[in-house]
# Entry
Amino acid sequence: MQRRRIVIDTDTASDDVVALLYALRQSDVVIEAITVVAGNLPLELCVKNAFVSIEKAGTYEPPVYMGAQKPLCKELFTSEYVHGSDGMGEMLLPSQKGVAQEEHAANAIVSLARKYPGEIDLITLGPLTNLALAAILEPNLSSLLSSVWVMGGAGSKIGNITPVAEFNLFVDPHAAQIVLDANLKPQFIGWDVSTDETFLNEKDMKTLEKGSETSRFALRCNKTLVELNAKYWGRIGFDLPDPTAMIAFLHPSIIEKQREAFCQMSCDDSVTQGQLVIDWQNVLGKSSNATIIEKIDGQKFKKLLFDSLLVDC
# Structure
């Protein structure tokens, strides 16, 4: 059976790392590239953490490409307060031996799409800057990619960086609008999906702690996020938006509710900047340009995640 070809675009910090660990351990997919964008952290740290993820997965070494160092039209906003100054819960790990490719991430996306037309499934775990640049470089990108999945937005719920905006889309809303305008028909898996049944609770954390070196690493690198949840929201545990998106991307049978709609970004408004505005009622009378995933099976998600992480390669 031919393995599914995927490209992962990431601003590699703690939950991205868990998503990469999972994807790197799936025998039915081959990661053709890991493209890195600034978001959770400055670009250089995100690249370092991508190589850490590859080393910890213990499987194979996809090529890593450095991409955009800042958003298209605004200054970079990072989230060390969520992931730690190193993006890894203050583990302060040494750099790995890997060296990024010379080609820019956006060019790599285009090159792979042209090399394997209709075969590449792309998932973004960070701001959409690299993908937007790729869409500008190749106006026919939508016809070359098999599918585009985006961890971004907040569905019909509250944001996690402003009252209405989710972090990834807030960091570069202009890039997200370019992606929507490029006929890429993204499938959005918002932050909201990771806050309910997929939230890893105290019992789940104990399972990870007792499991394997890999599962303990996945727990430890999210230490800052665990502390944040306890301090500000009184919740024991942590959400994993990027692994939630990754597992739904790789196993769409766990999706329980999704809807198509016309979406657009709020790019410049001082109050709503970064909001993914979803026309649920088709008030504008426009054709849908995206799919919004609203719910996945939390128990199946956890089983898939634990089955992968609780063993060492």
Q: What stands out?
A: Residues 43-57 form the longest helix (15 residues).
